[in-house]
Amino acid sequence: MTVETLSALDGAAGGAAAPPAGARQIWRRLRVQRAALAGGVVIVLLVLVALAAPLFAAVEGQDTTTYHSGLLNSAAGAVPYGSFGGVSAQHWLGIEPGTGRDLFARLVYGARTSLGVAIGATVLQVLIGSAFGLAAGLGNRFADGLLSRITDVFVTLPALVFAIALLAVVPSGFPRPVLLALVLGLISWGSIAKIVRVQVLAQKSLDYVAASRLAGSSTWRTARRELLPSLVAPVLTYAAILLPSNITSEAGLSFLGIGVNPPTSSWGQMLSTASTWYQADSAYVLLPAALLFATVLAFTVFADGIRVALDPRAASRLRVGTKRRERVAAVPAGAAADTAAVAVPDAASDDEDGTA
Length: 356
Hints:
By secondary structure, the protein is mainly alpha-helical.
């Protein structure tokens, strides 16, 4: 189990009795984390690029399938003419070596494929994991034991190896992005099921859940009205962690040649092709690799910000740009009285946020 999973489990168990924060309160805690806000801006831009991929390609006047063989230097091994991979007014980021397809168009369409697969897999993981975790937490001892053992199998399952085996036997006519989302979603839901189960078991012992049962509410009604709202914070936090992991998994499977097939574009599939051109055309390798790195980093930083905003008692691993750190750093090391004077307003402001 990963460090992020253990952190989410600890947060779920430790914060079970805390009431859910409102949207304004969450935004107030999130906006002081500059790194998380920067990650959120990058995510929004990437989603907009993915949604508007046909528009961006039309503005450039290119598509993902047209071969521009006249722009390739056949004497040099079919590398593009010019510097930086053949960058020009017609091809903003150059063209692919060997094929001559426009690189900008393939990158923006690749964003649609990579993000679509990752989001679809994450939604499926959240739905399956939440259902298993909720059923295990609310069920009797036998149901809890059975569902927990099934969850343990999927947690310990070598997901990448199993995904390779499934993708290898499915007919090639099946839409590959949809297949990738299904395979990743059906295999890697075990950790989120454990998080939901821990949260449900902690909530079952609280007074308001017991009062709901004493009032005659059914198990499903109690789960829907009392337990599900408290699951939003841990599930949302872990979903933000799962998403970059799914992006990396899709890229890895496409890099191995069993993911997205040409002419469909994805960043992982582009990296697989670019691995043979890294010496002749380094830009072809660096562009999809840089986009993958920026996307995974943005989602990871934003997930940490969401975790801290939903659970203010959790200490952020990324203290970049927070107001409290800036005030504390400005206090001299020997000024104990001044430090205490600064710390008191911070604590007051934290209490004010927590009770607003």
